[in-house]
């Protein structure tokens, strides 16, 4: 008799066993087929584990953060005279900043502490700031990352315009990182805060007045000059552009192929020492190894500045730097020429020149005996060409590496930040001040002014944080530095006497 209950388990077991056998046969056949295919592939080409990994491993692309760029917002055309409310970040932190190691600033940054030394104990009060008003061209106040300017008088040419433009670009580069501050700025040449006036008994505290140069007899605070963003009146391009042109010019004409004389070209009528140097020019009776040329800027302007391209003036082995009314912006252009700079002993310094050393970056020239001193310098260089070329190269390297615009902005950043720490009051926007931004200055500008502004404009916040400022000089450091410089100058003077 048929019993379905006894049949079902038996048949299920047989069916299951049969299915398993069929699956095994299929799997074995599949593995054999794959083995044949792979062996055929490997016979045709050598085994390459990298190619297999490349083919089978997905590529993960880590895209760097896109650099933030912010163009001028001239929404009202050239008639705009107001700053955009919030299109530019007042605070900005790039992801790359936290991962980047900031380099140490050049050694000349240490002079920042020295320039601010007179106020290190007392701090800076509002009364001190306002006491500099009579000598200031403008007052600059920064509050919450925005700049406000109160103008007191018209400066010479466009000095104030491009000084303020440079400060605004620094604020674009480091938005929200400059603390609130209040300062007075004088765009003139001559120092006015005389040290002796504030060493007398019961003398008032000196005003913290910013300007382009200083000397040992003054307390003025030294700041980068306007020409780093362009000198419109004599068609000198912004430093970032011009320094590259000078570098290319240096590469075109080797030092040994240049004219073996000392070259100077400029306006001699601005100072007695320049007028005196005209005597050193070549004549029928005497050759002092110098080639001196007067620059007529009015004539040059009418002719379209065809004869004043600085990049085309690096054709001599030696170039002379001599002060004008005080210090001269021409110093950086001369030092960057890869020629030996014959530096007539100066009375003034700018923010970076205190980092230069005689016989390393320049050859010192005796101010009281210029002609003989220049003649000897050229003779020495022509008979010691390797050493002379090293001096020219060291100066050029200093200008190209330690005076690039990154460091100019960092110097401004550190100077203003250290100054702000001294303020004993909270800066407030003056009633007569106007807010200043890149739009207010560049949108209505025309001609060369607009061209230079656009050329030198910071496009957006920096990917990097400012360089690390080195510690201040100790009194012993300053003494040692000055003694070393004086010894090197005396050494040259002794060679001149022997010559």
Count of extended strands: 11
Poorly predicted residue ranges: 1-63
Biggest sheet architecture: 6 strands, mixed
Strand content: 5-15%
Number of helices: 16
InterPro entries: CAP10, O-Glucosyltr/Glycosyltrsf_90
Keywords: Membrane, Transmembrane, Transmembrane helix
Domain Glycosyl transferase CAP10: 177-426
Transmembrane segments: 20-38
Characteristics:
disordered N terminus; six-stranded mixed beta sheet; single chain; five-stranded parallel beta sheet; O-glucosyltransferase rumi homolog; membrane; 499 residues; globular; alpha/beta; transmembrane
Short description:
The protein has 499 residues and is an alpha/beta fold. The protein is 40% helix and 10% strand. The protein has a 6-stranded mixed beta sheet. Strands 7-6-8-9-10 form a 5-stranded parallel beta sheet.
Write the layout of secondary structure elements.
Blueprint: H1 4-44, H2 49-56, H3 95-99, H4 111-115, H5 126-130, E1 138-143, E2 146-151, H6 159-173, E3 181-185, E4 209-211, E5 221-222, H7 239-252, E6 259-266, H8 272-277, E7 290-294, H9 297-302, E8 316-321, H10 330-335, E9 340-344, E10 363-365, H11 370-383, H12 385-402, H13 405-422, E11 434-436, H14 438-442, H15 447-456, H16 475-498
Parallel strand pairs: 3-4, 4-5, 6-7, 6-8, 8-9, 9-10
Antiparallel strand pairs: 1-2, 1-3, 2-11
Helix pairs in contact: 6-13, 11-12
Domain Glycosyl transferase CAP10: 177-426
Pfam families: Glyco_transf_90
Protein name: O-glucosyltransferase rumi homolog
């Amino acid at each position: 008799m048929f019993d379905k209950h006894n049949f079902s388990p038996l048949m299920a077991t047989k069916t299951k066993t049969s299915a398993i056998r069929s699956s095994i046969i299929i799997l074995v056949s599949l593995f054999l087929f794959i083995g044949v295919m792979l062996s055929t592939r490997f016979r045709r080409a050598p085994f390459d584990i990298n190619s297999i990994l490349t083919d089978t491993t997905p590529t993960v692309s880590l895209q760097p953060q896109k650099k933030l760029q912010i163009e001028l917002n001239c929404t009202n055309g050239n008639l705009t005279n107001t700053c955009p409310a919030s299109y530019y970040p007042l605070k900005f932190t790039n992801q790359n900043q936290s991962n980047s190691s900031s380099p140490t600033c050049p050694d000349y940054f240490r002079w920042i502490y020295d320039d601010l030394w007179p106020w290190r104990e007392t701090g800076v009060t509002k009364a001190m700031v306002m006491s500099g008003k009579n000598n200031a061209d403008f007052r600059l106040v920064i509050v919450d990352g925005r700049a406000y300017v109160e103008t007191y008088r018209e400066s010479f040419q466009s000095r104030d315009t491009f000084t303020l433009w440079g400060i605004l670009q620094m604020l674009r580069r480091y938005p929200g990182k400059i603390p609130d501050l209040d300062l007075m700025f004088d765009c003139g040449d001559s120092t006015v805060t005389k040290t002796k006036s504030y060493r007398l008994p019961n003398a008032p505290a000196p005003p913290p007045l910013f300007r382009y140069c200083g000397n040992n007899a003054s307390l003025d605070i030294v700041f980068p000059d306007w020409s780093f963003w362009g000198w419109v009146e004599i068609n000198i391009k912004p430093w970032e552009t011009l320094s590259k042109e000078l570098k290319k010019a240096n590469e075109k004409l080797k030092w040994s192929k240049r004219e073996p004389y000392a070259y100077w070209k400029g306006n001699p009528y601005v100072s007695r020492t320049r007028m005196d140097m005209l005597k050193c020019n070549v004549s029928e009776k005497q050759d002092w190894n110098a080639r001196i040329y007067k620059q007529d800027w009015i004539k040059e302007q009418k002719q379209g500045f065809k004869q004043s391209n600085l990049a085309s003036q690096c054709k001599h082995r030696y170039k002379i730097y001599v002060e004008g009314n005080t210090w001269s912006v021409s110093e950086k252009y001369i030092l960057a020429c890869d020629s030996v700079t014959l530096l007539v002993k100066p009375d003034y310094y700018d923010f970076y020149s205190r980092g230069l050393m005689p016989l390393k970056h320049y050859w010192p020239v005796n101010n009281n005996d210029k002609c003989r001193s220049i003649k000897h310098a050229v003779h020495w260089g022509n008979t010691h060409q390797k050493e002379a070329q090293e001096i020219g190269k060291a100066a050029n390297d200093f200008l190209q590496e330690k005076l690039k615009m990154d460091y100019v902005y960092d110097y401004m950043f550190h100077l203003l930040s250290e100054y702000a720490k001294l303020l004993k009051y909270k800066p407030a926007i003056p009633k007569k001040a106007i807010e200043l931004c890149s739009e207010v200055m560049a949108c209505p500008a025309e001609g060369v002014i607009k061209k230079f502004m656009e050329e030198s404009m910071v496009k957006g916040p920096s990917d990097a944080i400012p360089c690390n400022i080195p510690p201040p000089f100790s009194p012993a450091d300053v003494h040692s530095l000055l003694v070393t410089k004086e010894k090197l100058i005396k050494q040259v003077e002794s060679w001149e006497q022997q010559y």
